[in-house]
Fold this sequence. Notes:
The chain has 469 residues and is of the alpha/beta class. The protein has 4 domains: 1-81, GMP Synthetase, Chain A, domain 3 (2-Layer Sandwich), CATH 3.30.300; 129-296, 3-Layer(aba) Sandwich (Rossmann fold); 302-373, Helicase, Ruva Protein, domain 3 (Orthogonal Bundle), CATH 1.10.8; 379-467, Orthogonal Bundle (Chromosomal Replication Initiator Protein Dnaa, Chain: A). It is built from 20 helices and 10 strands. It has helices spanning 2-19, 22-28, 49-58, 60-70, 150-161, 181-195, 206-218, 222-230, 247-262, 283-289, 302-316, 322-331, 336-353, 359-369, 379-389, 394-398, 404-420, 425-431, 437-453, 455-466; strands at residues 33-38, 41-46, 76-84, 87-88, 93-94, 171-175, 201-205, 234-238, 266-271, 293-297. The strands form 2 sheets. Strands 1, 2, 3, 4 and 5 form a 5-stranded mixed beta sheet that branches. Strand 3 and strand 4 form a beta hairpin. Helix 1 crosses helix 4 (60-70) and helix 17 crosses helix 19. The chain is globular, with a radius of gyration of 27 Å.
Amino acid sequence: MQREVMTVWNRCLNVIREIVPEQSFNTWFEPIVPLRLNGHILTIQVPSEFFYEWLEENFVHALRKALDTAIGRDGQLEYSIIVDKGNEQNRPLTVNVPTTKTPQTAKPDNVSPDILKSPFQLKDLDSLTLDSYLNPTYTFDNYVEGDCNRLARSAGYAVAERPGVTSFNPLMIYGGVGLGKTHLVQAIGNYIKNNNQNKFVLYVTSEKFTNQFLNAIRTDGIRDFTSFYMQVDVLVIDDVQFLQKKEKTQEIFFHIFNHLHQSGKQIIMTSDRAPRALDGLEDRLLSRFKWGLSADLQTPDLETRIAIIQKKLQAEGIYIDDNVIEYLAHSVNTNVRELEGVIVSLMAQASLNRRDIDLELAKQTLRNIVVDSERDVTIDSVQEAVADFFNVTVADLKAKSRKRELVYPRQVAMYLAKEKTDLSLKSIGYHFGGRDHSTVIHAIQTISDLVAKNADTRDSVEKLKTLFK
């Protein structure tokens, strides 16, 4: 029996490994212990309730696919949650795995699941309850405002309160990866949906829009496709940059855009760059993108990063010391998505190892997450390498001492931290005993001059740089 459950679970893992990233697989699936197989019911043991909830919220579709492959469509999953060391909960919790048999919404075999209740099945919206494809967890309440996103957030809220009425139509939100574009536009959609029952909101990615359009061409359903989209009250289209060089899709979107705008309907879009930088889109489409407001999202500043961490921890009901929060905020300054990923990994490590979240665990978690590459060098790895090279300690680099044998390595470490990481001068100073950014500037300038004039310094810096390649 044990061999049978292990075989089934290994089949599940083979499927899951192909779906989820390696880091997520190692963190969330390797610790799972398969307990028993009772008919079509597979019971697995997880380390904590938090672990179970995270699997349900983030990997339920991967688990469903794994069960379909390993057991069949009747396969079910149960969790056995460890609540105390050595004490297993007797009452397993059954996961809410989406069933593969949904006769109420069953579709013909030749219709893609991505276009459920789409224009290929429906000719109008009257008396129909349609899915807006909005994620209800994306709200204004859990969207942290800061200098980096204030304009976009304020404009978004104005649109949410008066869709189609403000001059922000269309509203274009643009910015780099992981800065919260999708969160913001879906928060707008959810607000409208919850406060204007008579308005139909539709969220769609440009990729899905394109696939629906291509399917409409194949099935001679262009009229239904266009009719459907022209009846939408609020259209939220994500990642419009992917419409580049798709002439026919741009043409149909142009006509839908015109109709919605002239009818007083609200259009909201996201892009990874400003409209003026969207090469490969028709000029007439780009000109319409500029009719309303384009607002950018920037990399969150330190204060916003601290607020994001606090908000995330508060939502999870977890408390950690301010010094740990400050360390995380100073250490991860790329984007919101990576910052939230670090927090989740930190909570997972604390849950798996049954320990409190302290500064040491935070450093260890960051060290495990960051890939050992030149692009991902951390402030900790720079300090450790410099301390080892000059035969001092990391504590010496952070100390207040002004002895030359410590000042010089400290300045070299600051110089390398600026060159090898994306940290701001303020954050670098924080990691060196809370020094002012002017001290960091002086250190960088000093070492730059020595590298140019002094062969010994140049040689030392070059040797240290090779450690980070």
